[in-house]
Amino acid sequence: MTQRQFSSIILAGGKGRRLNGQDKGLIHYRGAPLIHYAFQSAQACSSRTLISANRNIEYYQTLGVEVVSDSTPNFGGPLCGLSACAPLISSKFTLVIACDMPGLSHAIISALQENLVSNVDSFDAAVYEHHGRLECGLMALQTSAIKALAEQQQFRDQSIKGWLKSLRLSTLKIPSNQAFTNLNRPLDF
Fold it and tell me: Which domains does the chain have, with CATH numbers?
């Protein structure tokens, strides 16, 4: 089963710039904080879940999983979060889910996981794309790629898309635009 081969990292450590500094994972959407949607997906698709967060650590810990803060000050970005989580991952593969995508389905996630697992000798990562744009809120990665990122410490000046493009990347066409709607601004709620 693919689930046992994966750990998950939920990215919930951002500044919330477009949300007036609010912690995005704690904003309520359709009756629950956003983190709960990502958490349910991670739990269904992996054997272990980590949350990358830089504030409200106590709340995130109530979910019963390990919460990891960035190794750099001032919210270093998603690559810093991945790097901080790297030493704690022992599975062959890692699923990365942004906390602001409540429309993700189990089918969309498992298709991405299956793509990477079945092409393990050819690709380091799998991600969805739409009209040439990578949808980086959901990624399936060989854990070795995350560990190499952490060892190189070259992520501070690199975007997550730039890093993905440096890997052997498998891209899948998005089956539904709704699934990849991420909530970034007050208008989205």
Answer: 2-184 (3.90.550.10)
95, containing H or E segment: strand 93-98
pTM for the full model?
A: 0.89
pLDDT tens profile 48-86: 999 999 999 999 999 999 999 986 766 678 898 999 999
102: enclosing H helix or E strand: none
Please name the residue that has the structure tokens 């989205």.
188
Q: Are strands 169-173 and 32-33 parallel, antiparallel or unpaired?
A: unpaired
Look at the alpha carbons of 9, 91, 150, 61 in this order and tell me if their dihedral is positive or negative: positive
Spatial contact of 149 and 71, defined as CB atoms under 8 Å apart: no
Distance CA(12)–CA(69), nearest Å, equals: 10
pLDDT digits (tens, 9 = 90+) for 103-122: 899 999 999 999 999 999 99
